[in-house]
Amino acid sequence: MLASAGIASELIHNPDHLIPFDRVAVLFLQAFQASADPAFGLMVGTMVQPRSYQVLGYAVLSCDTLGEAIDRLVRYEKLVGKLGTSKLLAMENSWRLQWACPIDGPWSRLLKEAAISGWITLARQLVENTPAFEVFFEHAPAVDVARYEQVLGAPVHFGAEFTGVQLASHALQTRMSGA
To answer: What is the pairing mode between strands 133-137 and 156-158?
Structure first.
């Protein structure tokens, strides 16, 4: 798969090398097709660990609160890749953490689901009591909504105006387990 995606296998072991977005997208799409699972992106996100984010993951581990961790994610995400852009927006009674994929294509749903699932998986590892949240996707579901809600552990909305999570205002004050 690496070769057909145009990625030299020795480069995946080089921590200083960033693989171009279009090559990662091709690889991700090939893996999706080989898996035959319409929720492949969602499931990839469940495998995220702090080290998945490289140096950023370790920087997040040293945060005191979930809000500080999200701030570091948003400010420094370009250190680990350019697959998308995160923004934290203050709403009337909540916070919206959204993710935008820069290129639309057959893989964008996969990447969006992997990103959001990855955020949620990481948050559960970092805080003892994950605050309540809701998940939003701009696209339609690839499988039954119940599977999304089971994997993500939250209400999931499709056809939304953004892709991301929405949390109560106080959620950003949640203490990190290893603070």
So the answer is: parallel
